[in-house]
Amino acid sequence: MELDDLKAEWRARDAVLARELKQQSAMMRDGLVERRLERIRRRGAMGPFGLAVHIAFLAGFGLYLADNWGRWEFFAPGLLLMIWTIVMGALTIGEQQQLRAVDFGAPVLEIQQKLARLGAARARAFQWAFLTGQILWWIPFFVVVMWGVFDVDLYRASDFMPRFMAINIGVGLVLVPVLLWVAHLVGPRLAASATGRSVLDSVMGRDLAEARALAQRLARFEAEAA
Amino acid sequence: MIALTPPKTSAERRFLDFLEGQRGTLYKVAYIYCRDAEERRDLLQDMVVQLWRSFDGFDGRAAPATWTWRVAVNVAISHRRRHGRRIKDALPLDLAFDVADQSFAGDSDASRRLRALVDTLDEMNRALVLLHFEGFDHAEIAGLLGTTAGAVATRFNRIKTKLREQLANEE
User: Fold this and answer.
1) Is B160 touching A (CB cutoff 8 A)?
2) How does pLDDT run across A55-75, given as a tens digit for each residue?
3) Which residues of chain B are within 8 Å of residue A5 when distances are taken between CB atoms?
């Protein structure tokens, strides 16, 4: 028996070792995914407080609409806000469901692509919610709150008020596309910086940030184990 | 299993992910240098601790696998010289030692011969045999061990002679 015979024996055992370690890595990967998925679910859930606030808003708008049936100048902004609230709630739940549907047992590249698409969709939804909410919806919201809570009719509070509201809505309509264009220009630079990344993470949700961290971990895991 | 606690920092997590791919290398070095399973386990811990200490300084100039071979062999050589010192668990580790030990340490005729040969070799020659089995050529082995290709060739000739003598004695 020569050294090369021993080398062949070594190689054979090495192949068995590599196979066993690979199996063990696969088991560790599964364990990691299972533990992290639970955390992602917890972070993504709306939570009892969030759900209660959402339901309270819907109930409030419902009562307001019932009270103002036939007084269309008050009913219309209330209806717009209710639709907006429902759409936002549905979007949030839909996004959470999409994240839950991601198969973390799939190839890492596929997971990362899905998470990137989800992240982009969330960022777009947030962009629209923020822009329309801050710029456009605040006038109807103002009208509804003043009338519904304080019994103040803003349309007749002063002669200037209707004009003020019309100007705000007009300016908002112009500003939305302008700000979207600015976001399009600034977005990539923002995403490249650490601060921007952290802002985007909080915008897109902690559950998605957690899922992305898991995908990165799996990628490293697979690269090192390969 | 050596210890199991969640990694605390991102550096630890990166290191553990790195280690995941190097377990086979570490185990094989431990196998060559230690006959006893407990001793192998100790050496594995030593190698991991040393890798962790050097991890920050790893600049990527060498391939991660080559770097691991170098550190592991150096630790194994010095481990044998200062045997008895135990390094406490410093990191959350799961090196799958039992899995590796079961799958690698065979009981065939060739295994026994290999063990018998290795047991007669000094630290440097064990590294030579190990790296030869792993497919490194003389120049690469010389680079990893800080010697010359000529010296490696000379040592190999002596090892081969020793193996032949061993076989002759058995017969």
Assistant:
1) yes
2) 898 999 999 999 999 999 899
3) 110
